[in-house]
Design goal:
This protein has 254 residues and is α/β, with parallel strands linked by helices. It has 9 helices and 7 strands. The protein has a 7-stranded parallel beta sheet with strand order 3-2-1-4-5-6-7, with helices on both faces. Bound molecules: nicotinamide-adenine-dinucleotide (NAD).
């Protein structure tokens, strides 16, 4: 049976853990050649080995522009093209971080050098490569935090809101230029990953309280986001660009 992304070369950042790991695994299963990247090399390499050839892992810090140029060049050298990019890598910083009154400029910059600048750099450098390949798609992992207040993690929420807006700008730029590149954002609610768990700091009562506020009465699994990405990166979504896809068990609907 043909996979949903057969023949495509797709890069997934932050692929060593959580949502990136599940997404990379799903894309590989659906026929893509996946370039997994992450700052964390051991887990990333192990997953690439588990997935087997042709999938590869390349160590990559998304906040470093030079490394973006290298990793995209390396992908083109290895596979001759890049059809899609999933900007997934992210950090939440300490939770609860701080309030707006105590947040340090250093932490603010550190978080957003990954969460917002990393996505900016990814889009900027992937666009010419995806154009060369004849078109494709970019999916940016934002958050529900782009839409609702995050008073305990202001830098995170602000950065994710930036990703939501940037995705629309990229989508319109590419559409108006006739590049055949679509760009959309995905907005997860709480997903069970190391980052998702860190929100509760092992406080089971807090976790249960949050769970009660989710209409579907469950947290999401990483693959729930993987399936949204699969649709948006595949040609099935050829008429979808500049859109935001919320995957949150209904949390934002009430
Ligand atoms: N888990 C949730 O509840 C949730 C909710 C909304 C949005 N998100 C977003 O989903 C994405 C994935 O999060 P997750 O929950 O899987 O987290 P995670 O912590 O399990 O995985 C994040 C991955 O990003 C990598 N990473 C961190 N900094 C990096 C850098 N500078 N360059 C490259 N890689 C880097 C980490 O090594 C890790 O492998 C993030 O953008 C996150 O903000 C997660």
């Amino acid at each position: 049976m043909a996979g949903r992304v057969n023949g495509k070369v797709i890069m997934v950042t932050g692929a060593a853990s959580g949502i990136g790991r599940a997404t990379a695994t799903l894309l590989a299963r659906e026929g893509a050649t996946v370039v997994l990247t992450d700052v964390t090399a051991d887990a990333g390499r192990a997953l690439a080995r588990e997935l087997g050839g042709p999938h590869v892992f390349i160590q990559h810090d998304v906040s470093d522009e030079r490394q973006w140029q290298d990793v995209i060049g390396e992908t083109q050298k290895l596979f001759g093209k890049l059809n899609g990019l999933v900007n997934n890598a992210g950090v939440s910083g300490p939770v609860p971080a701080n309030s707006i009154e105590t947040e340090t400029l250093e932490t603010w910059r550190k978080i957003n050098s990954v969460n917002l600048e990393g996505v900016f750099l990814g889009c900027k450098h992937a666009i010419p490569a995806i154009r060369e390949a004849g078109g494709g798609a970019i999916v940016n992992i934002s958050s529900l935090a782009a839409m609702v207040a995050t008073h305990q993690i202001p830098a995170y929420g602000a950065g994710k809101a930036g990703v939501r807006q940037l995705s629309k700008s990229v989508a319109m730029h590419c559409a108006f230029k006739g590049y055949k590149i679509r760009c959309n954002s995905v907005h997860p609610g709480v997903i069970v990953t190391p980052m998702g768990e860190s929100m509760f700091k092992g406080d089971e009562r807090e976790k249960a309280k949050y769970l009660r506020s989710i209409p579907l009465k469950t947290f999401g699994e990483p693959v729930d986001i993987g399936y949204a990405v699969l649709y948006l990166i595949s040609d099935e979504s050829k008429f979808v660009t500049g859109a935001e896809f919320i995957v949150d068990g209904g949390a934002s609907a009430i």
